[in-house]
Specification:
Layout (H helix, E strand, L loop, with lengths): L2 H17 L3 E5 L5 H7 L8 E6 L3 H8 L3 H7 L4 H13 L5 E7 L14 E8 L2 E8 L4 H20 L1
Parallel strand pairs: 1-2, 1-3
Antiparallel strand pairs: 3-4, 4-5
Length: 160
Amino acid sequence: MSTDINELAAQVGRALQEKGLLLVTAESCTGGGVAQAVTEVAGSTGWFDCGFITYSNASKTELLEVPAAMVAQFGSVSEEVAASMAQGALGNSNAHVAVSTTGIAGPTGAVPGKPVGTVCFGWANGDTVHTERLVFGGDRRAVREQTVVHALQGLLRFID
């Protein structure tokens, strides 16, 4: 794990701890990479509740209560699904803040309008939800690493 990710995760931890907040992750394309990054930080039990790795559409629906109709309408890689994943993670945990990632890390999986590297993010706190859609370059590993970095950077902005 890169030093940048470790430092970002430590910054997220400090920000959460200062505000007395617990974090939950809901990850698809990152396969738990965000949760791994934050749990690398000593003392993360004070601000990290749990993580959901919902790689399949069925797990998104069953574990995070993402409506199957939403997945069918917008696709699993969409801001709508990312928002629903984050809200579902909050509803199924003891956390106050959630981050979600869903995307196409590649090398396959591209669909019209969603090339390899497309990732959607969700950050939620109560009824407040922010989403973003980005397209990252590089191979599968690079896309996943950039996604973890952006998820953590987004958490810092969202918490403040």
